[in-house]
Amino acid sequence: MPITNETLKAMIRDYNGLELSDEELELVRPELENYFAELKKLEDLDLSDAFSGRLMNLSD
Amino acid sequence: MSNTDLLRMTISELAPMIKNKEVSPVELTETALAEADRLQPTLNSFITILHDRAMNQARAAEEAISRGHYAGPLHGIPMGIKDNLATAGIKTTVGSKVLADHVPEEDAEVVTRCRNAGAIIIGKENLEEFAAGATSNNPHYGAVHNPWGLDHIPGGSSGGGGANVAAGVTFASLGTDLGGSVRLPGTFCGVVGLKQTYGRVSQRGLMVTSFNGDHIGPMTRSVADSALVLQVLAGNDPLDPSTVPVPVPDYSAYLGKSLKGLKMGVPSNHYFDLLDGEVESAVRGSIAALEELGAELQEVSLPMMEYIGAMRIAAMADGVVTHEPYLKAHREDYGPDVFYRTVPGQFVLGKDYSKSLKVQRLIQAEYAQVMQQVDFLVTPTAPVAAPRIDAKYISINGEEHRVRGPGSGVISRNTSPMNAVGLPAITVPCGVNKSGLPIGVQFITGAFEEGLLFQVADNYENVSPSQGLRPAVAVGA
After folding, report:
1. What is d(CA A29, CA A35) in angstroms, rounded to the nearest whole number?
2. Structure pTM?
3. Are B362 and A57 a contacting pair at CB < 8 A?
4. CB-CB neighbors (< 8 A) of B312 in chain A
5. Integer Rg of chain A from CA
6. Which residues of chain B neighbour A41 with C-beta distances below 8 Å?
7. Per the CB < 8 Å rule, is B347 touching A34?
8. What's the pLDDT tens digit per position in B200-211?
9. What is the CA radius of gyration of chain B?
10. Could you give the residue numbers annotated as active site of B?
11. Which residue has the higher pLDDT, B147 or A53?
12. A2 touches chain B (CB under 8 A)
C-alpha cells in the first residue's frame, strides 16, 4: 500500500523537514516509488555479512 | 596553418607544435575564443566565456615557452571547465540560480593542476542545474544543444563540455561524474569521456553531492588526449581525504600496446537488458572488432546488479543533506526537476541508507571477483542515443521511461554502477545511428588500472567507425 500524504506530512512535521503541499507530494511520488521498489527487492537479500564503507585497494 | 586546421587537431597533435613554437598559444586561444563566440548562440555551451583572462593566460604561456619553460602537453591548450568546479575570482554558479553570484576565492585542485600545466581556461561550461541530471536542459541558463543534432540533448550533467569538445571549441573540458555525467556527454556528443578510479583525482573545489560517488574527469577528442589530461589531474591531494597515495604511471606509455591475450568480459545481465537496437548493434560490433584485435571474449555474470537500484537510496539522502541549507533559504530559486528529485531524500530512513551502503559493498566485492577473471569489461555506455531536448519520456523496448526529474535514471543505468563501485570507466565513440547521432561503448578495468583502460580504448578507437566523423556545426566539417 503506498505511503499516505498524511504519513509524509507527519514525517515532515516531526523531523523538521521541508514543507510540501499535497500537490507537491504528488510530484515527489515517482522518486519515492522508486525508493520503495528498491527496498522491496532487498527483502530477500542477506546483508548480514556485508559491511558498509568503501575499501578500495590496489588488489581490488 | 589555417584556423580550421587548428580547430580540428587534438592535444597530442598540437603539443609538439606548441613546444617547437610552430603554433602560438595566443593565436590558438584567439581562434578557440572566436569559435566559442560563433557557436554560443547555437550550442549555449558556456555560462561564462573568459575572453580577457584567457588571452592573458595565453600571453603568459607563450612568454614562458619563449623563455624555455615548456610545462608539458597541456601548455597553451584552450580548455573548458564545468561551472561546478571552483575558479578563483570567477563566477561559479553550479548551474543554479541559488549560486548565480558565487565567486570562489580558490581554484579547485584540478583547475590548479591544469593552470600549472599551462592550460588556458577559456570558459565555464553550462550544465544541468546543480549537476543533478542527465540532460543539461538548464532552467536558468538554457538548454545546451547537441552539436550532432541541435534538437537533442548533449547528455549531462557536463553537457557544455561535451558539446564544446565535439564541436571543436575546446580541446578538452573538465566535467564531473556522479552517475555518468562525463561519460553520458561523451557518448551523446561522440567524444571520449573518462571517469577514473575513485580516489585517483582530487575532488577538492567541487560541490560534491555524495559521500563516495563524485568524480572529476576529462572529455577529449581522443583517447591519447584523455591520457594526457589524466596525467595532469591524477595524484594524491593531502587536503582531500578521498584521494589515495597510489603512484601515477605514465599513461601514454600504454597507448599502442597490443590487446593480444587480454580477456574481455561481456556482462550477460543488466548492461544489455534494456537497450535500443541500434545501440546494441553498434556495441556488438565493437566487441567483434576487439576480438579481431586479439582480445579473448568471456561472458561474465553479475547477479548483484539486480540490486544496483538501491544505490539511489543513499544518493537521495546524500543529495538532500547537501542541498538542505539552500533548500531552506532559496527554495523558490530551484527548478522543478531538481527540486522534486532532491526533496524526497528527506523521507529516506537511516536503516535504509545503511542497507544501501551494504549493497554497495556486495556489488563492489562482486566486481572485484569478476576483475580477477577478466582484464576489462565492455558495455554500452547509454541505452539510447541522445533523446530530444523536449522529450519527457523515452521508449525502450516498448516501455516508457522518464528522461529527467523525479523517477528518472534510465539514461544512466549503465554508467552509474561504476560510480558505486569506484572502478575506472571510459566511453569511446563507436558509430552513429540512422539519425546521425553518436553511440558510445564503455570499457571498465580494475582499480587504478587506467593505463590498461587507455590501452584498450586506444586500440578500439583506431578501428572505430566513428573515426573522422564530425558534427555539421563544427568548422570545416
Report:
1. 10
2. 0.96
3. no
4. 34-35, 38
5. 17
6. 306-307, 309-310
7. no
8. 999 999 988 888
9. 21
10. 82, 157, 181
11. B147
12. no
